[in-house]
């Protein structure tokens, strides 16, 4: 499923401009992430590379084609469950980059000692994401009715998805 | 259901010592909140009275007997759903303080323009809380299997609870 030329590695400060370009392109569409479409670069950097967040990039040669973050979903007594977020550069869809990052993140979460992974806010109309997570073993364990204000469709449901590691 | 002598009002900086006393007593038990049982006072203050958080106290005369926080559950395109957390001073249970804060918070959330309220991590063994939220119109919309490491019972489920406003 995944492109053999894709390498996934921890992000460095030098990757930030490329990550920000992807973050901004994805978030400004208002159809897959709750982050405000007009999120500032400073806000984005704090969210994506702030304390407690492990940040990775998917690279194709020198090009950053995707990025994901891994962190505890809850503090203290819920910190055995990981949370992650993934973004693929628009224009790089269909190359298995999401799948490759998903597989990588599950391994990284296991290595970090997490027992499960949880997504809190998968937009129900984001068919590509929902299908990807199902293929990677996640199940919908909750539905937040009208939890997302979609730029095109208005209020749509959010899914909570989960799998053990 | 609620004690006629209880008043609920916005918290001030001067309330912090009493709030911290409640926070520490509740969290250190490790049976109802994911916050680390040994959370520091600085961490607690940032969580409970930090930016973007509206903090309230329930008072009986000069005594702070409970506290709750209200904030958006998600940023940007999910910010129409409120999140809240409530703590009653141990020793003050059974006086309807949780109920009174619950009712107050629903009104406060409506006034602030939220369309719904969501709790992300109601400990499934916390019968008192689950029953209270049901009486206040919340329903379980999700279950995180083994999402909470309970100090006594080990890994138990977390509920996601939700109601429209």
UniProtKB/TrEMBL annotation, chains A, B:
Q: Which residues form the N-acetyltransferase domain?
A: 6-165
What molecular functions are annotated in GO for this chain?
acyltransferase activity, transferring groups other than amino-acyl groups
Which Pfam families does this chain map to? Acetyltransf_1
Record's Gene3D superfamilies? 3.40.630.30
Tell me where on the tree of life, at the top rank, the source sits.
Answer: Bacteria
Keywords, sorted A to Z: Plasmid, Transferase
PANTHER family given in the database record: ACETYLTRANSFERASE, GNAT FAMILY, N-ACETYLTRANSFERASE ACA1
Descriptive protein name: GCN5-related N-acetyltransferase
